[in-house]
Amino acid sequence: MIKRSLVGKVWLTVLILVIFVMFFMGVFLSQFFEDFYFSLKFEELVKNGIKISELIADAPERPEWQEEMVMIARFIDARIVITDRQGLIRQCTIQDRGMHLGNKIQHPDAEKILKGEITSHRGTYPGLDMTVLSVGVPIKTDGEVVGAVFLNSPVESVTQTVRTVQKFIFYSALGTLFLATVLGFILSKRLTRPILNMNTVAMAMAKGDFEQKVKIESDDEIGLLGSTLNFLSSELQKNIDALSAEKDQLENILTSMTEAVVTIDIEGNIVLFNPMARDLFKINPLIEQVNIREYINNPGLIDSFYTVLEKKVHLKKEISVGDRIFSAELTPLQQNKGEVRGIVAVLHDITKEKRLELLRREFVANVSHELRSPLSLLQGYVEALADGLAESEEERQRYMDILLDETLRLRRLVNDLLDLTQLETGNMNMRIEKISAEELIQRVTTLMEPLFEEQNKKLSVALPDDLPLVMGDEDKLQQVLVNLLDNAVKYTPVGGVVEVGAGYYDDQVVISVTDSGSGIPEDELEHVWERFYKVDKARSRETVGGTGLGLAIVKNIILAHGGEVKVANEPGKGAKFTFTVKIAEE
User: Fold this and answer.
1) Whose CA, among 12, 250, 348, 385, lies 20 to 30 Å from 28?
2) What's the rounded Cα separation, in Å, for the pair 148 and 118?
3) Is the pLDDT of residue 581 over 90?
4) pLDDT tens-digit readout, 181-191
5) What integer is the mean pLDDT of 323-334?
6) What distance in Å separates the CA atoms of residue 240 and residue 57, rounded to the nearest whole number?
7) d(Cα 188, Cα 9) in Å, to the nearest integer?
8) Helix-then-strand count for the chain, H and E
């Protein structure tokens, strides 16, 4: 754990550095003080040896020398040996049988000393069972060496002093080591505390929490790093907020789009889609990875995807999804190096446009067909009159009656087209007011009664006594009833009955017109409100007249009033048309 943590690493580094420094300093100081003390002792012995040699040179034959040498030896804490020029011992303070007067001295540097050199030596000495510091000084008289003074001082006193100094150095090193350990730990903690704080802030930033900040405690590099980290946190917060806002905006845009949007990566996995695409392709949002080959069974979209992926070009293509038609635009998403990282597909529903285009074509065809018959008749009879083919006045009058009927038929067709166009575009002026539904029905049925009698058909009216007033345009509602009754009388056989009924519930009055014809095929009920739609595809209805626009006008008038229109087959009777109108408020 110590090696892994920054505190341990800093503390251990400081500790090892102090140990190495104190070790080498201790060794150096010990050696230095040892050499220093021995050097002082040698110098002291040399000085004492020179003084003794000078005293002896001044009075070599004094009988008191032996006693004086003993006193001097005790004073300077050294053993004194005095020899003549042949190296024979003349005075000696060493009590040993090998060190008697007249014996030749056993000293490694005796010859050098007797030649006039001053020597020093540390080691064992004959006659002494200890390590001594030995100094040899020649005795000179008139420049000639007449003997030598050997001073031998035990090293024990010097060694004790050196040991005392070494102990002091050792204990000082231990104290310094302890102090360095404590201070190093404190220093490492102080150095690493802001770093640990930065680590905590960085981990919080990684989790999306940018509120935590580094506490700046100094102006050094670590403080500068903390300030930079705080600045980085603030900038990241701003950027993430901006990205979140853009993401929310993108999600809102995608959600509000009427087009289906799908983003696909190069592996064919769907990575983004809006609600329109989810509903269109039945995508389960709980599935983590959705592949277009496995989940979207649409060869057109799949082939377009791989075409764009291979050629890296924008592609626009019409595809079918169920009974709907879409204009699919696929655009490659490219990176900076031109590599495609995905494809975005936008599917615009053009089903309505396609159907409107089809209706437009059918409308043109239907109008052309409806106009062609009366115009052909008009042309034929006008040419007949112009060529004088009418042989009698009665025949001429019959031609004129046919021309009038066809002209009126053209006029009805044009008026119906104008009314329907105004209703669909919202340009029809509506005068909404309170009217009596009962009076309206009675007036229209009375108006249509002669037509029913002429064709030997019966018109039946059944109304409640308390039928309320309604809100509507009286002329337009009258047109609705006329169109429905006119349509009913055409498909009711001779002797048949057309029933007009009414009732009310909640806030609406329901008016119905039921004929006793053959009814309408069930698969064509929903199409009867379309312009020019006729149940008889061969247009055999031309025998009973009609423009094919009456029911379309009925539907648009009722929708403009905020009501509903319905058609259904009545068992054993025929077709039943109903519409609703809002009841007038009190």
Assistant:
1) 12
2) 10
3) yes
4) 777 777 777 77
5) 83
6) 103
7) 8
8) 13, 18
